[in-house]
Write a structure and sequence with these properties.
single chain; alpha/beta; 9-stranded mixed sheet; 14 helices; binds ligand BES; binds manganese (II) ion; binds zinc ion
Length: 486
């Protein structure tokens, strides 16, 4: 989506959809923007008892009094809240519904920070995944957004470019997650990762399954061995010359989670193409960080496998011996995410100079039980890192809630035949999964785990997202890194 700034009068802008933002009763905003026609609309809104709450909207006929084909009035809500960004997302969603490919935004003058938020959320609201829909059912994406009313257009042009990069990568994450598992498998993710090499200072290394075996990545080897699709370990390194800090990201890349021999029932398996959401999120964030040229080195590790039942599957009772010496009994082949993340966390915490490691994973159904679908679960013992990440989520208007890593619950994952077992029972399931991961991070490494099993993929439509992949946490990670490099 291209963003252009224009001083054209709102009544004269030739677009498919003109969106006029209003506050309060809207009368003043509407007459300033649309003159006498605005007064008529204000009366109409009054009759309809329209309230200018953030994201509220109403399509209004133009009666030929505006050059735009369609007119929508959008509530901007209160300043200093995320109401304006919700309004932006709403415009994106309405544009999609109305098959608008060009839209204009008359939201009044926007400061740089608000402009970036709004301009990020328009494409987020506009998103749809439709490559497999019949032509007649496809609705085109918005390709040009004209921002009106902005004397400061030049000043916020930079914000618009950054917003575009961030939104495009969020969309990439959503496309990768929504795509069917026949199209997305470990080697196809490796091909996606290799595309990042066109960005300056980015290198990509892919370890095929033979190399994973040779390197002792026992989790990737075991979980992937039941599938006809070989697993891979992907590493993306972004090393800008002016780096002020250095972080590592790890993302769970289970391209389909059938549960393996501990097979999931159909209902539980139906959405399990989402199980590479952590890898998609980490990859997209890395792409955005590199494309924005942020001054932080990033090493991103993506363990990718397909978890399938077959004659070659790993089995219950198998014991894995990890590179760091920890041994793990397999009690349930459906608790596979932690087994492959363990390999990647060992690698990530060995990278010289890395100050913080953050992993993202659609790790547990239990996080949905605890927090519902909207919230990402944050696990870390590092208060400073918790504060950084919580702040980054808030700045992206994404929901996060911290849960405790209760040391005593290590008793629940203590093994009988090995040091650990890969399940800890139903109670505190997200916490025991987090504790498990902690055994593969070096003691002195600052580390946080993000359980995105709920927030990465919605089973129904929840504003500003459509059903399916949300791409949440991409903009959050970019915010976090941006601050580290500032
Ligand atoms: N990929 C699932 C977790 C998941 C559930 C993601 C729902 C998104 C939506 C994970 O691999 C899994 O199967 N976890 C098990 C763990 C259990 C066997 C200890 C679970 O949550 O039931
Ligand atoms: Mn599983
Ligand atoms: Zn899984």
């Amino acid at each position: 989506m291209d963003v252009v700034f224009s001083a054209v009068d709102a009544l004269n802008v030739e677009v498919d959809l003109l969106a006029v933002g209003i506050t309060g009763d809207g009368a003043a905003d509407l007459s300033r923007t649309l003159g006498t026609f605005g007064q008529d609309i204000a009366n109409y809104l009054k009759d309809r008892k329209f309230e200018a709450k953030g994201g509220a909207s109403l399509l209004v006929p133009t009666f030929g009094r505006a050059k735009a084909k369609q007119l929508v009035i959008v509530g901007l809500g209160d300043r200093g809240t995320n109401d304006r960004t919700l309004a932006g997302a709403k415009v994106g969603a309405i544009a999609r519904g109305e098959k608008a490919t060009t839209a204009a935004l008359a939201f009044g003058a926007l400061d740089g920070a608000t402009a970036r938020d709004v301009l990020e959320l328009v494409p987020v609201g506009n998103y749809a995944y439709d490559p497999y829909l019949p032509e007649a059912q496809k609705r085109p994406a918005l390709n040009t957004l004209t921002v009106l009313d902005n004397g400061e257009g030049a000043a916020i042009a930079g914000a618009a470019i950054a917003a575009g990069v961030r939104a495009a990568w969020q969309q990439k994450a959503r496309d990768l997650v929504n795509a069917p598992p026949a199209d997305v498998y470990p080697e196809s993710l490796a091909a996606e990762a290799r595309k990042l090499e066109s960005i300056p200072h980015v290198t990509v290394e892919v370890w095929d399954i033979k190399r994973c075996e040779a390197e002792g990545l026992v989790g990737i080897v075991a979980v992937g061995q039941g599938s006809a699709r070989p697993g891979v370990l992907i590493r993306v390194s972004y090393r800008p010359p002016n780096a002020k800090d250095h972080v590592a990201l790890v993302g769970k890349g289970v391209t389909f989670d059938s549960g393996g021999l501990s097979l999931k029932p159909t209902d539980g398996m139906l959405t399990m193409r989402c199980d590479m959401g952590g890898a998609a999120t980490a990859l997209a964030a890395t792409g955005a960080i590199a494309q924005l040229g942020l001054a932080v080195a990033v090493d991103t590790f993506l363990p990718c496998v397909e978890n399938m039942p077959s004659g070659t599957s790993y089995k219950l009772g198998d014991i894995l011996r990890y590179k760091n010496g920890v041994t793990v009994e397999v009690q349930n082949t459906d608790a596979e995410g932690r087994l492959i993340l363990a390999d990647a966390l060992i690698l990530a915490s060995e990278v010289p100079g890395v100050s913080r490691v953050v992993d993202l994973a659609t790790l547990t159904g239990a996080i949905l039980v605890a927090l519902g679908p909207d919230y990402t679960g944050l696990f870390t013992k590092d208060q400073g890192l918790a504060d950084e990440l919580t702040g980054a989520y808030a700045a992206a208007n994404e929901a996060v809630w911290r849960l405790p890593l209760v040391d005593a619950y290590n008793r629940l994952i203590k093994g009988t035949w090995g040091q650990l077992k890969n399940t800890g029972g139903r109670n505190g399931g997200s916490i025991t999964a987090g504790l498990f991961l902690g055994h593969f991070v070096k003691k002195d490494t600052r580390w946080a785990h993000l359980d995105i099993a709920g927030s990465a993929f919605y089973d129904g439509q929840v504003d500003p997202y459509v059903k399916g992949a949300t791409g949440q946490s991409v903009r959050t990670l970019v915010n976090w890194v941006e601050k580290l490099g500032a």
